[in-house]
Amino acid sequence: MPSSFDAIIIGAGLSGLVAACELADAGRNVLILDQESGQNIGGQAFWSFGGLFFINSPEQRRMGIKDSYDLAYRDWMGTAAFDRKEDYWPRKWAEAYLAFAAGEKRSWLHERKIRFFPVVGWAERGGYAATGHGNSVPRFHITWGTGPGLISPFVHRVYEAVKKNLITLKFRHKVSDLIIENGIVCGVHGEVLEDDKKLRGLKSSRIKTGEFNFYAQAIIVTSGGIGANKELVRRNWPERLGKAPENMLCGVPDYVDGSMMEICQKAGARMINPDRMWHYTEGIKNYDPIWSNHGIRILPGPSSLWFDAFGNRLPAPFFPGFDTLGTLKYIMQTGYDYSWFILNQKIISKEFALSGSEQNPDLTNKSWRLILGRAFGKSATAPVEKFKKQGEDFIVKNNPDDLIAAMNTLTGNNLIDSKSLINEIKARDMETIHSFSKDRQISAIHAARKYRGDRWIRTAKPHPILDRGDGPLIAVRLHILTRKTLGGIETNLYGQQLDKDGNP
Question: How many Å apart are CA 322 and CA 324, to the nearest integer?
């Protein structure tokens, strides 16, 4: 086997596969290295919901959504709130990505046989001024087939290029250093790990069986973030969000350890904005875990009541699905790293989805029968119902006193006053019996149901949570769940890593 290639790609996740496909189509000779086994090809993307950001797509137009580049630009900049000298290239990347999402992105994916679920989701709704955080309109497009459906065309193309000797795949090859000659990165050094046939997502062996050196004109790093490395998450935790959580669930497999970021820094690359992360507040413990400390995120509709550890209702606009980082900051200011949803069966059956391909068999397996059951059934999806029965964070009771008693028992601290919390729910319920409301969450639900996508499959009609006919009552303890790394190695729009002076 040759030791020199046109390009070496470190990481066989989605971005690495896409880069390899493009290079192979151009006739280049590519080596892909990954520390995991071939069972993990596609990386984190395999486990994803397959969400894609498009602007003014056919799916949006069919659903009556009027979107534009200018509106998306305002929303993006209001959410990103770029305010640092280091934000020069992040802003450039945001502008380039918005142009891509408003332009060729959808057609490019469609040409590669990727299809999309027709109902567009509305994530991060904001709740502030028009220039502030959040999406003004629904833009969350779900890949038909979720994560596996998104990676499948690229996996197929990579293996076709392997047959043509354009791509070489080397799994269980962990890069430990970048080789530099005359000030230029020209290769990689690392360790060959013992073969490990564990199923996808399981933590694998790190026993070394050999070493390697490979060389190329271009070294492309597509190794992912730090979401499974709690030490790095805590080290980089932003002051603006308060103290880092004592307890966190992991929303990504163990191999998302951030190791290549430190290796790139050692080689002279500049790390910027390491304190910018996107962790979720609606994490639940997986009763059937795959990776270490495995957490699943609830993708909630807007109706569940959200309470902190003391049983105080979260203030506006910290409603389910509105402002992730704002809610995270508020929760951490309480001194506890968990919170609660309170809802009933009518809400969970209409509004609860779980993030991840394995938690959405209807969309992953492209089953319209199961999707219609999700939309019109009295039960939630099968995975949600399993969590309701088997998940340690779910409590199901027939009356509010028993529910709150069980909440206090689960945490063991008796922080919640039953009378106060029940009065809060009753006050909210009174706002649902007429068409007017001063409760901003109820108003937001009415606004959401004006969008037929929400009305069909995402948002329950406002109703009293304590109505026995819509029971039983459900409480869900929510944990902080690690996920996205927003900071990282600074690059220009050519993807070249930059040093501390801004040079490639």
Answer: 7
Q: What is the DSSP string of 438-473?
A: S-HHHHHHHHHTTSHHHHHHT-PPP--TT-GGG--E
Q: Among residues 218, 169, 234, which one has the least CA distance to residue 12?
A: 169
Q: Give Cα 240 distance to the centre of its chain.
A: 21
pLDDT of residue 1: 66
Q: Which of 327, 213, 312 is nearest to 280 (CA)?
A: 327
- State the number of CA atoms in the 13 A half-sphere of 107 facing the CB: 5
Structure tokens at 423: 């009065």
Which pLDDT does position 117 carry in this prediction? 98
Say what the pTM is: 0.96
24/248 Cα distance (integer angstroms): 40
Contact 124, 317 (CB under 8 A): no
Beta bridge pairs of residue 219: 8
**Helical packing angle, 69-80 and 88-102, nearest 10°:** 150
Per DSSP, 143 falls in state B
Cα-Cα-Cα-Cα torsion 101, 107, 111, 113, nearest 10 degrees, comes to: 70
Helix (H) or strand (E) holding 176: strand 173-181
Residue ending a domain, among 142, 168, 202, is 142
State which H helix or E strand residue 170 sits in: strand 167-171
Of 500, 326, 307, which is closest to residue 420 (Cα–Cα)? 307
The CATH number given to whatever domain includes residue 467 is: 3.90.700.10
Give me the amino acid identity at 162. V
The residue type of 405 is A
What's the total number of domains in the chain?
2
Which residues have C-beta within 8 Å of that of residue 428, sequence separation ≥ 6? Answer: 305, 313, 439, 441, 442, 465
Contact 138, 62 (CB under 8 A): no
487-502 burial code (b ≥16 CB/10 A, e <16): bbbbbeeeeebbeeee
Ranges of residues in the chain whose predicted pLDDT is under 70: 1
Q: What are phi and psi of 164, to 5 degrees?
A: -90, 5
Q: What is the Cα–Cα distance from 56 to 42, expressed in whole angstroms?
A: 28
Contact 473, 257 (CB under 8 A): no
Rg, Å, the chain Cα set: 24
- Final residue in a domain of this structure, among 87, 110, 142: 142
Bridge-partner residues for 125, per DSSP? none
What does the pLDDT read at residue 391? 98
Q: Which residues pair with 42 in a beta bridge?
A: 13
Domain that holds residue 92: 51-142
∠ CA 97-98-103 to the nearest 5 degrees?
95
For residue 274, is it within any domain?
no
Note whether residue 174 is domain-resident.
no
Give the Cα-Cα-Cα angle 319, 384, 362 (nearest 5 degrees): 105
Token pair for 28: 């280049």
Please check whether residue 467 lies inside any domain of the structure.
yes
Is 23 within the bounds of a domain? no
